[in-house]
């Protein structure tokens, strides 16, 4: 994980450098969350499409996507390198000058969001080290933030989204910030592109996904325990949500993302070895 510059902390949730070896060509599943995704591949362009749509792949040296309720299919060969950023909803305004709702459900390139950053992939490729690439990226992001003068959303909208992320019921959130549920629905949708209930579901799912990955790295996964810890009624509830957002069951997702799997059908516990990879964090 890369340390984010303080001036970018409100906009950039995380910056991850990835350098991954795969057994062969395949598809990585990009999971939905409450963050926006910004990817800058090296060596070969990124090929992305939406899971289950059968639609065309977006191919390019950059990928920007807003909130989405369908997983992304990231097509890869034997090796992938690049930089992936998770952006906050506020980061869309700060970096691109638009609310996150303008990017919701879309797969875009830098040309679509900021033509002044169109040459960033070439500048990253020209840098000889990861340290140099990260310095180029940080400078470009800081410059983009300084160029923007778009107003930020009202504080109560940000508070509402924070409460929704923590699992507070929508009606209680509306009362807390002093809006009717209808008004809250409009404001949240205008800001991020999904209604409050969907935003809340995305937040809960994102937490479950993070717990699933952490448990995987520990060597054993209890889907039932993750469901309980993430606020789902039971394992079946998590499985339905996982299928809705990821396009497959939790067990199938584990098999796809971790090819060396000692699977146990749909039982609660699945153990496996971590796939061979190289990664800089």
From TrEMBL:
GO terms for molecular function: DNA-binding transcription factor activity; sequence-specific DNA binding. It holds the Pfam family HTH_18. Residues 164-256 form the HTH araC/xylS-type domain. SMART domains: HTH_ARAC (SM00342). Keywords: DNA-binding, Transcription, Transcription regulation. InterPro entries: AraC_XylS_family_regulators, Homeodomain-like_sf, HTH_AraC. PROSITE patterns: HTH_ARAC_FAMILY_2. The keyword Flavoprotein does not apply. This is AraC family transcriptional regulator. It comes from Nocardioides oleivorans.
